[in-house]
């Protein structure tokens, strides 16, 4: 170590004849790529979650969720492609497929964690509640009257059975609403991914306008 340090000083020293005089010049720092211990961190790296060990786990989770969502959405579309009156299922499949692609492309569509999570949660809650404005009713059997609310999936329903349709409807309107947990979850996932796509579009637009 001492000898190496002396050799470095000798390479930077300036010697003059006559009385011994050593002028030490400042040696230039090694700025070659191999001497760097860090690399520049861009805004894309920060938004995509590639700045540490913890965020890398988040990036892996995002990729896994994107792959599962994309495969599941395409399968759902194929299952309902020829089914009559299933336009809502096709819309759900399309939204989830696009959402899966967005999750699989962090280098092109960076998603800031907190704004994206906020947009997804807000869209999931707001969309599920807004879907209650749509109501479908059915009458059949001996007589059964069923009212359902929710979109794209009906997750709130009530109904009753009576000897005539008028009595069945009157009893159904007095009954309490029942929550379908499965349809509510599916509805929340759909609206959540719609919020994610909205957040991705806003982020992308801001990045393009900043160039």
Secondary structure blueprint with pairings:
Layout (H helix, E strand, L loop, with lengths): L1 H11 E3 L6 E3 L18 H6 L4 H28 L6 H17 L9 H18 L4 E6 L3 E6 L6 E6 L3 H10 L3 E2 L1 H30 L1
Antiparallel strand pairs: 1-2, 3-4, 4-5, 5-6
In percent, how helical is the residue content? 55-70%
Report the total helices: 7
Low-pLDDT ranges: 8-27, 33-39, 41-49
Number of strands: 6
Q: What number is the mean pLDDT?
A: 79
In whole angstroms, the N-to-C terminal distance is 49 Å
Structural class: alpha+beta
Topology pattern, helix = H, strand = E: HEEHHHHEEEHEH
Backbone shape: elongated
- Rg, rounded, reads 32 Å
Describe the structure.
The protein is α+β, with helices and mostly antiparallel strands and 211 residues long. Among the domains are: 2-28, no CATH class; 111-211, no CATH class. 57% of the residues lie in helices and 12% in strands. It contains 7 helices and 6 strands. It has helices at 2-12, 43-48, 53-80, 87-103, 113-130, 165-174, 181-210; strands at residues 13-15, 22-24, 135-140, 144-149, 156-161, 178-179. Strand 3 and strand 4 (144-149) form a beta hairpin. The chain is elongated and about 65 Å long.
């Amino acid at each position: 170590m001492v000898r190496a340090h002396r050799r470095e000083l000798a390479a930077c020293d300036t010697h003059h004849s006559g009385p011994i005089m050593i002028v030490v010049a400042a040696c230039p720092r090694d700025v070659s790529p191999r001497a760097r211990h860090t690399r520049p961190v861009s805004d894309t790296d920060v938004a995509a979650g590639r700045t540490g060990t913890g965020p890398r786990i988040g990036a892996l989770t995002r990729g896994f969720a994107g792959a599962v969502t994309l495969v599941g959405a395409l399968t759902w579309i194929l299952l309902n492609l020829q089914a009559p009156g299933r336009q809502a299922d096709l819309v759900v499949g399309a939204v989830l497929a696009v959402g899966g692609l967005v999750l699989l492309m962090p280098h092109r569509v960076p998603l800031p964690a907190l704004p994206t999570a906020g947009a997804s949660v807000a869209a999931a809650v707001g969309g599920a509640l807004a879907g209650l404005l749509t109501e479908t009713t059915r009458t059949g059997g001996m007589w059964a009257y069923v009212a359902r609310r929710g979109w794209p999936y009906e997750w709130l329903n009530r109904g009753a059975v009576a000897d005539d349709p008028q009595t069945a409807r009157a009893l159904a309107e007095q009954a309490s609403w029942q929550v379908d947990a499965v349809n509510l979850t599916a509805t929340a996932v759909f609206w959540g991914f719609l919020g994610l796509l909205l957040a991705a579009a806003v982020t992308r637009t801001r990045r393009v306008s900043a160039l």
